[in-house]
What we know:
Elements: H1 3-7, H2 14-22, H3 46-77, H4 99-109, E1 121-129, E2 143-146, E3 160-163, H5 167-176, E4 180-182, H6 184-192, E5 202-206, H7 217-220, E6 232-233, H8 236-245, E7 247-250, E8 252-254, E9 257-269, H9 274-290, E10 301-307, E11 314-316, H10 327-356
Parallel strand pairs: 3-4, 3-5, 5-6
Antiparallel strand pairs: 1-9, 1-10, 2-7, 8-9, 10-11
Amino acid sequence: MSLHAACRLPFLHPTAYRSLTTSSRCLKGNTRKPRLTASGMGVISEKSKEKRDSARQLLATTNRTKWEDTNRKIAALTGKLPTTNVYLAANFEQRQFLLAEAAECLREAAQPEMFNCLQNPLRAKFTLNMRTKKKTKFLQKFEGHVVLPHLLDFLPKSRVIALCKDADDAALAVEAGAVHAGGTELFTRLENGSVHWEEYDTVVAHTDWEPTLKKLRHVLKDRLPTMRNGRIGSDVLTLVTTHSVGISMESTALEGVPEIAFLDVIIGQLAWDTTRLETNMQAYFDTIQSNKSSRVSGNAVLSVELYCPPTGERFPIDLTPYLPVSGSAEISTADDENLEEEMVLTQNDEFNQALTA
């Protein structure tokens, strides 16, 4: 090799070899080899922790102030109704729309001449009540699963892995829509990371697997099936069908306001007829009510807003058609009906007596 060719070779500093051997690389079992660092590197300083905590505290204080101001404004405007057809909505009590009315208003803005989004998902934002019977205690999160009467076929199905009792159930689970189904072999593959977490969305299991599922906690994390989230049962086929076409619901908290939580769901497409939208909305309400904790004080749902991006309009929905009638209301209604029947009978008796006379 000539001297000129040798001069053109790249020169590697000794530290370059060290960076090649100590760089992080992804191993086969979905585990990452940690990067070798000097002592003290990668440790969060106290100053960084203080900045992060102060920013979080500022966000919580801001959210709390906005929420309290909104509640005071709503209370001040309660009962204040407009007397004309033209008025400023911010100065009067907020109107509650029926779902049919709100959907029709959104369709007007979604026409092809405007936003052209009639096929977009119609979303509902639930504000959930997280208060308990103890004033200082609040629920942390709401979780649930629902199979809507009218399936959301325009959304991709959830990819489900099924841990079955035997080989026959595994074959039936695959036919029902599971991406992977099996027993001990599949459990081992999940445990050592051979099945990548991007290959599935949900894991369901037979009740026989409940004692050993704790070994998968570090791998599955929030996808770990439990009796509480409804992913463990004796009928694996039903679990696969339910979680592949159903909708998983999980609330999000508002920092600084533990009294409420938000739940954002899709009830259908904006172009759907009102009957299908009403049925799906009722299914969401029934699921939330059935999964309501016994510690919750009052109704589980405080308010619902209907919207359809990219339109910026949001319509508050009247909850009366969806909330269950309380026992006291039913009793008072029955008493009113009995009172009306007694009044009718009394009037008929008086009328008959007058005819006889």
